[in-house]
Amino acid sequence: MNSIALTQNGIDEAKFQHSTLMSSREIADLTGKQHSNVCRDIRHMLQQIGEAELKFEFSYCGEGGRKYVEFRLPQDLTLTLISGYHAKVRVAIIKRWLQLEQEEHERVLQSLAPKALLGSLVAETGHLLGDFVRCLPGVNTQQVRRTLQELGYLFQKGTYKWRVRAKYRDLFEEKFGPNGLGWGQITVTQKGALKLAELYSDGQLPMRKNYAPEAFEGASF
Q1: Which residue among 79, 119, 148, 181 is buried most deeply as judged by most CB within 10 Å?
Q2: Which one, of 156, 158, 102, 137, lies nearest residue 214 by Cα?
């Protein structure tokens, strides 16, 4: 939480990889105590409850690349630690934990909601290409047709008219006005929706600058 930390023993790295933890440095910041004193309190607590220090001991890089030791505690041990602290300190720690839980909740929702949305889109048919890709978080919708052209699915006829290559007309369909007039529209079939979902998950669709597509990491369709 304060900075990227490395486990010192590696034994419990997998155990805590996806857990919300509070570092001894953050506890020190919230309580106004010296970090060394917080570490002392943590060691004393762990000794009393029979837990090994190495399970919660991490290292972090300070100024100049020098490594220092900190502890990272789950919620129950954090609250156990502060049970003897001043009431104002306990309130500050509890408020911070509520904030961390809310952030974790929002992170989980952010990772799940787009997948559910895309799944519902894939289950439907007849979406206009532009409408479909606008539902994909972070996609640069202005560049999608150009990217699909580079990937060989579309080609451009004239300045504005986009056409689907014959071998991919099971993925995309063309709709034009009477006698083939007008700019035309490209719709996405169910198979095409699956293909776009695959391209999106593989990072082949153009993304807006400064967008990190974490929400769809590991998605499969």
Answers
A1: 148
A2: 137
Q: Which of 150, 114, 148, 116 is nearest to 134 (CA)?
A: 114
160 close to 182: Cβ distance less than 8 angstroms: no
* H or E element that contains 79: helix 75-82
- The structure tokens 């690349």 sit at 65
Closest CA to 200 of 221, 176, 170, 173: 221
- Closest by CA position to 172, among listed 182, 152, 159, 187: 187
Buried b (16+ CB within 10 A) or exposed e, 176-195: eeeeeeeebebbbbbebbeb
3-state secondary structure of 149: helix
Cα dihedral value 34, 35, 36, 41, nearest 10: 90
Nearest 5°: the CA angle 10, 16, 17 is 85
Using alpha carbons, select from 112, 93, 89 the residue that is nearest to residue 101: 93
Per-residue pLDDT of the chain (221 residues; tens, 9 = 90+): 443 334 444 434 444 444 678 999 999 998 899 999 999 999 999 999 999 999 899 988 877 778 889 999 988 899 889 888 888 888 888 888 888 877 776 565 455 445 555 566 655 667 888 888 888 888 898 899 999 999 999 998 776 678 899 989 888 988 765 544 445 688 888 888 888 888 887 888 898 887 655 544 444 44
